[in-house]
Amino acid sequence: MKQLKWYKKYQEWSLRFFKKYWKYNLLVIFIFFIMFLINVYYSDKKEEEYAKKYPYYKTSSLISGKVLYIETLRQRIGEGITFSLDNQKGYSLGWADNEMYVPSKISEFLQIGDSIYKASGTDSVLIYRNEGVYYFEISKRIDKDGNYY
Amino acid sequence: MRCTPVAKAFSIDGDISVGGGVNVAAGYFVILQGVDAGKLQSFGDFGVGGGADISINLKETNIFYTGDIKNFRLNSLSGTRHEFSAGVTINGIDFSGSYFRSEIDDNGGRVIGVSGGVGVGAIPYSLSGGWNYGGTVLLNK
Question: Quick check: A32 and B50 CB within 8 A?
C-alpha cells in the first residue's frame, strides 16, 4: 500500500512536470532526430565514396582478370564481396552459395591470385584456381548435387 | 522499393537513454519474400546513441528491401543500421514507433524497417526518443 502511494505521488509529479515542460521535452527529441539525420548523411557519403571504388554488382557488368586485392576492412552487408583485379579496377559481387565447394559462400571462397570471369548479361561466375574451375551464380544457391534450391 | 514487407520482426526491446544510451532487442524474424521465404530466425540487436527514453516494449517491425527481391535473403537482415525512435508514455504505458535503415549491400539494396510497439516507461508521463547506431546478429545460425 505504501508503495502504491509512493507511485501515485510520482505519477502526479510526472504529470505536473510534463504539463509544464513538454515543449522542452519535444525540443530534446527533435535535437536527437537532427543527430540521426546527420549520422545518416555522413554514412551515405561514405557509402557513395566506397561505391565509386567498388561499384555495386550488376548483371550487365563484365568481370575478367586476376584477383589482386580483397577488401576486408569494410565489407557491405549481405555476404557479398568487393575486390580489385589486375586491371586496377574495383568490383562487387552479390551473395552466391555453391555447396559442392568448401567454403560454400563466394565471399569466403574467392582468394587473392584466383582468376575470375563473368560475362556481361549473365549472373554466372567462373573462378579459376590451379587446374580447377569453380562455378557460382549470383543470388542463387546450389546444393551438393548441383541443384538450385 | 517494394511496398509490401519482405519480412517481419517480433521483438522485445529495451531502451536506456538519458543523453547517451543503449538500445538492446531480441526476437524473431519471419521471412515473407525472397529465397528464404517461410523461414523463422532468432536475432539480437544492440545499438548505442543518444536519446531520452527508459522503457521496455514489445515491438512489431515491417521490413522492406529497396533492391531486387531476388537478392534479398535472411543474411540481408544482419549487419549495421541507423535507427530513430520516438514515443509517448501515458500513465506509465509507453507507445513507440521507430525507423531504421541498414547499410547498402553489394547489389545496391538496403533494408528499411518501420515498427510500432507498446510497453512500459519508467517516467509515467513523457515524450521519448533518440537515435542509435548498431548492429543486428542472427542467432544460432
Answer: yes
